[in-house]
Amino acid sequence: MTEKIKNPGIVIEDKYAQLIRKRLKKEIISTENLLNYVGKEIYLCGHNAYGSITLNEPLKLDLTLLDSHNKRHLISKEDILKLWPDSNTFYAYSFRINKIFKNQIKYNNTNKVFGIIEDIKFINKDNKEEKVIMKKEEISIVAVNYYNDYEDTLDYLKKLEFSEKYKSVVESFLSLYETYLNKLLSKVYDGDGMVLKPEAETPGDYVRVRIRDPRTMIDDSFRTIVLSEIEGIKAVVAKLKKDANGPTHIQSVLFDKEKWTTARAIAWVDSHRKELL
Fold first, then answer.
1. Nearby residues of 197 by Cβ (< 8 Å), 6 or more positions away
2. Would you call 214 helix, strand, or coil by DSSP?
3. What is the 3-state secondary structure (H, E, C) of 36-50?
4. Which of 54, 177, 207, 231 could potentially form a cystine with 255 if both were Cys, beta carbons 3.0 to 4.6 Å apart?
5. Which residues contact 103 (CB under 8 A, 6 or more apart)?
């Protein structure tokens, strides 16, 4: 018995999809509300499918703010006028890249320039449709890779049904995997003092998200700087004990509560992780 899996995808102009593929573009701009797809893994598509991403909650921008985000979305002013000639309200969706395909894949492109395709179907070299089918009695390596988040992977596997032949093996595997996860997720910092899984704290007027263990930093070197006055983002920086003569590093990021929810703050930190290290 088989079960059809829907594969939603987002289509953007190919040159910008290619920039995401090269890990240069950090935001997808839209005048559409895509909140139904926030937090879900969707395929990244232009002329072809290039991989999969997960959208974070959007920032609402006007034309001035859109221009200030240019280094993140990389859309030229000419294209902005061409795509949205009468718009002054935009949504900036940062995202997490889940995977980039080694080879681009043809799909059922409907000549859509931008927007969501609810069910992406891949096309092979003979122009035949390749349906995504999952056998319930098998553990699919593809499925495990598709759900790159540990907890989502475990939840997904628990929902599958297995034949008696594989049931005892699968149950043993899931038990060991769950034990491993519990140990992994109980750790707050790695060996270098970096936060493994950022969580939001809400002291005073700010949502605080830690990046590093403060115990790894020199006590009298802490200070607060402004990252973005417009967006209401500050950072606490300090010097590392292991590099006392080196530069300061971000210990935590502060988000103005009047502009940020805890969920959006976590999503922002997740999408800017490389810049914060």
1. 185, 188
2. helix
3. HHECCEEEEECCCEE
4. 207
5. none
